[in-house]
Amino acid sequence: MIKIQTLNKIAAIGTDNFDKSKYVVSDSVENPDAILVRSASMHEMEFGSNLLAIARAGAGVNNIPVDKCTEAGICVFNTPGANANAVKELVIAGLLLSSRKVPQAMDWVKTLKGKGDEVPKLVEKGKGDFAGPEIMGKTLGVIGLGAIGVLVANAAISLGMKVMGYDPFLSLKAAWGLSPAVIYSKTLKEIYENCDYITVHVPYNGDTKEMLCAEAFASMKSGVRILNFARGELVNDADMLSALESGKVAAYVTDFPNDALIGAKNVVTIPHLGASTPESEDNCAYMAAVQLIDYIENGNIKNSVNLPDAEMSASGTKVCIIHKNIPTLISQITAALGSEKINIENMLNKSKKEYAYTMIDASGAISEKVISMLNSIEGVIKVRVI
Known about the structure:
alpha/beta; Rossmann fold; Alpha-Beta Plaits; 3 domains; 5-stranded parallel β-sheet
């Protein structure tokens, strides 16, 4: 039986995909062959040599030690786009919350409880403190045009906003999905200088850590409203609070509360609700499970964050090899197979930065001797025969 460990509750629409005659899926299995996870931190976990893959039911993989996994030949999947609509809808809500001071107004209304017949008059007298601009006709800057950013940009266009988008790594798929009305910016400076609202949708890494900081705020229009539904670490909180205090930033809406931000003036903190919809959880669970099954049973890779996408059918025995992306390694693999009179019917090799994945459709049995020969090649990390 193939053992799948779940580190969080995974929607049944995902786990039901596993054939019960071949798989056991549980949070209590030991030495798993694969892991399904949502938000649980895995950085302190030890992985067995038989662990093939980790599938994250969601987009971000900050809770997974990706580099450690890659070095061990563990394929790490995520589910890009599965929760995109859920996040998009909350971002649109965030745009309105940043403008119309709705949370502050609702809190104020609660203070009128017990005022009896005076409430209507008090409402009319006090409502002016919560006036705010409409979003129609304003300019929204979307930083990061992935699955979520594209949906946000297109929705904002539909709401009558002018939209500027920035993404130096814009994919062809994203470009096809983007409304032609979106103005593509070549630099962040263009976004900062021209936008009334800015929403950020980029992954958190060494290059994006605290990208929204004092230097960035200084380049922005006064009174800009900023939305962060991507990662809390993208914003320097101390600099943000200073910008709010000075009025440079009029409002900050974030899905990532912390002690410094909670209760701060003109900050709307939402408890990480971006993907918290039943539809999103179902989409992520299903996508993660299907990708995991295809990798385990067929060796195919789709939406891996550390290995290249690769898909190949085979008429004979499929040999799947994770290895370093270095010269002469492929020739050593084919030479090893040839020395044992194993014919290669078809072969696919794909690379992703320093690592590569090779799939071979081989005729003839692959013995333990052959597997040992392949594993002994310098740069080979993991060999699997399906």
